[in-house]
Amino acid sequence: MPKNTSVAAHLRRLLDLLASGAPAEDFGTVATEARRGGVDGDDLAEIEQATQAALRVRGALRQHQRREAELTALFDTAGDLAALRDLDAVLRSIVRRARMLLGTDTAYLTLPDEEAGDTFMRVTDGSVSELFQNLRLQLGEGLGGLVAQTARPYATPDYRTDKRFHHTHSIDAGVLDEGLVAILGVPLLLGSGSGGKVIGALFAADRTPRTFSPDEVALLCSLANHAAIAIDTAKAMTDARVALAELAEANAVIRERSAAMQRAEESHDRLSDLVLRGGDVADVAAAVADLLEGDVTVFDAGGWPLTPTAHGAGGAGGSAPAGTSGTDAPKGFVGTDGTGGTDDAAALVRAAEESRATAHAVVHDGRWVCAVLAGQEMLGSLVLSGRPDLDGPDRRLFERSSVVTSLLLLLRRSVAEAENRVRGDLITDLLTAPDRDPAGLVARGRNLGIDLNRPHLVLVASTDADVRDRLAGAAVQYLFGGDGVSAEHAGTVMLVPDGGATPGDAAGAAAEQLTHLVGAPVTVAGAGPAAGPRALADAHAEAARCLQALTVLGRRGAGGSAGELGFLGVLLGEDHDVEGFVRATLGPLLEYDDRRGTQLVRTLGAYFGCGGSLTRAKEELHVHINTVVQRLDRVQALLGPDWNSPENALELQLALRLRLLSRG
Predict the structure, then answer these.
(1) Residues 162, 115 contacting (CB under 8 angstroms)
(2) What is the pLDDT of residues 218-243, one digit of tens each?
(3) Residue 280 gets which letter from DSSP?
(4) Residue of 180 and 365 predicted with greater confidence
């Protein structure tokens, strides 16, 4: 068999393994079989590289499958809440899904017994020990008691040897009888922050040592939030029935409360249905705006808008909440006076922190602000305007809508991070070997939704070494919601944003917002637009050179492009546009000479050539010294009063010399 045919057979084998979902170890046998079959040299290296690529694709596919499973389970949970009839059934469903999503041996939920003054097991899944199923915990005892006492998540890889928790004989006996080792517990909170009320705890546990990741903690917190809503909703419905029986004489009040509850249930059904149909954050904002008859905008944790303003039937229309206009407001535009900026974003962040601390929506500058949380993490905020008289039920609906928003933002971020990792591999290959397989790079980009043959801007960003690890995440957050892509490369981060701004404008905007997100100065250089793998790699190289120039020039924390750096741009630019530099520098003088038949450019050259001496210049030009003075006055009128400053004089002299050389 010819070697190229043999290589193709092994590559097809890799594709077959991918298609069948084979385990990772099977991929390694392909290169081994190829080596045994006599394949060596470049062909064997190509098979080994293809094996690594196939393993990366397999990992990405498995990550997507896991995310899809989480999304389905969370949507099913939202559906259960929307059709809430039996509280026990909903809680059993949540506990079962917690066990399924985290892949643990068991999961359980505890609730407080107000009469006994302790907590008890309400629902378990995967438990085999009767002793464990009947455990009761006092406040502060064991991991669960600490979760209930502090209202914070706790996890341990080995509970039996962990000295952070107050061990008791009864708890240790139950845990030992169940065989549990690793335990993760999160609180069931009504509200959030220090003002939240703990109404129980949700746990996931393994019978072998295990370290729970932050994503797993956040996911269990989201399920716990759903459980808290289910319990609170069931309690509210019970209270309504009791009030109806005991307060028959207050029939009008009861009808009003029932109507409010009915509206809340219908609103929850509408939001849940929206999520189940694949709605986005902007759709939630539109639904809440319609339900509350106001204007709603969703902001990220830094105070920058994630959605355009959604206008309800009774909203203020053009009076957009927190400063957006209802169209495509620029990021960071927060003020209602048309100015906006970082200070306004900071004010919104402070209001969101106040909402988290009080566990309720707060009023800020005439608008309602509600924190959007995933566990203890601040994901952003909801801002409602046009409803200064937000009453109890509507306020509660507004606050609960933040839970749905947090779910969508968490899922949206997880999907974006997974996609960005795959796209980052493409960018790395593009920069390191753009000519090795251009067609393959274009095809990979097309599969990821990136058309490399379409013109793109290229940005390169850097920051201080001690905060460099924040820059990659900030780049993902900056591009979040668009079609752009980012990747780390050589100590910097490359961004390929969508949109049609100039390289300098795009770099300036990115520098401002990345500096805000990182919390330290971020310098950004731009190049392009460029189309095709080689051109994009060249644009990256130009932007990298420009970034180095910005750093040397002391423009730390700024953004720019080679075209904005004057003669440095001529040296740094890929195309060395000498004519463009000469025209940009001497253009007003050249146009004046052409139009009036004057000799301003020649006079300026003579002036610089004579070291700035008017006397020597007039002799070289064979004119009166007053003529030289008058011409230089005209130069100043055309170029500005600082035309003779050292920096501008250097550029003018360089432009004059380049013009002379270009004319032969």
Answers:
(1) no
(2) 888 888 888 888 778 777 777 767 76
(3) -
(4) 180
Q: Taking the alpha carbons of 328, 330, 335, 337 in that order, is the dihedral positive or negative?
A: negative
What single DSSP character describes residue 459?
E
Render 72-124 in DSSP notation, one character per residue: HHHHHHHHHHHT---HHHHHHHHHHHHHHHHT-SEEEEEEEETTTTEEEEEEE
- Per DSSP, what are the bridge partners of residue 489? 492
User: Could you tell me which of 367, 55, 411 has the C-alpha nearest to residue 219?
Assistant: 411
Q: Which 3 state secondary structure label does DSSP give 484?
A: coil
E strand or H helix at 54, and its extent?
A: helix 41-82
With CA atoms as reference, report the closest residue to 104 among 222, 219, 21. Answer: 219
CA 127 to chain centre: 38
CA angle 403, 406, 408 (to 5 degrees): 115
DSSP letter assigned to residue 21 = T
Handedness of CA 136, 138, 139, 140 (dihedral sign): negative
List own/partner pairs for 320-325 with CB under 8 A and 24 or more apart: 320/295, 320/385, 321/294, 321/295, 321/296, 321/297, 321/367, 321/383, 321/384, 321/385, 321/386, 322/297, 322/348, 322/367, 322/383, 322/385, 324/297
Where would I find the H helices in 451-577? 468-479, 503-518, 533-552, 567-572
Mean model confidence pLDDT for the chain: 78
Match 């988290």 to its residue by tokens: 356
DSSP letter for 642, please. T
Q: Is pLDDT larger for residue 143 or for residue 27?
A: 143
Provide the residue type at 55 as one letter: L
How many whole angstroms separate alpha carbon 405 and alpha carbon 270? Answer: 13
User: β-strands 310-311, 295-300: how paired?
Assistant: antiparallel
Q: What is the model's pLDDT at position 37?
A: 78
d(CA 664, CA 662): 5
Residue 326, phi-psi category: left (phi > 0), alpha (psi -120 to 50), beta (remainder): left
Cis amide prior to 497 (ω within 30 degrees): no
Tokens read off for 551:
């750093």
**What's the rounded Cα separation, in Å, for the pair 652 and 658?**
10
Count the neighbouring beta carbons within 10 Å of the beta carbon of residue 47: 21
Selection from 445, 441, 447, 524 nearest residue 478 by Cα: 524
Tell me the HSE value of 383 on the side-chain side, using a 13 A CA sphere. Answer: 33
pLDDT bin (cut points 50, 70, 90) of residue 2 is low
Q: What's the pTM?
A: 0.38
Collapsing DSSP to helix, strand or coil, 619 comes out as helix
522-530 and 559-561: which strand pairing? Answer: parallel
Q: Cα(316)–Cα(323) distance, rounded to whole angstroms?
A: 12
The pair of three-digit structure tokens given for residue 151, joined into one six-digit string? 């209202």
What whole-number distance in Å separates Cα of residue 65 and Cα of residue 414?
A: 12
Report in angstroms the alpha-carbon separations of 20 from 14, 200, 444: 10, 43, 21
- The residues with which 125 forms a beta bridge, in sequence order, are 107
Which pair of tokens denotes residue 325?
């206009």
Say if CB 473 and CB 493 are below 8 A apart.
Answer: no
CA 504 to chain centre: 23
User: Which pLDDT score is estimated for 481?
Assistant: 62
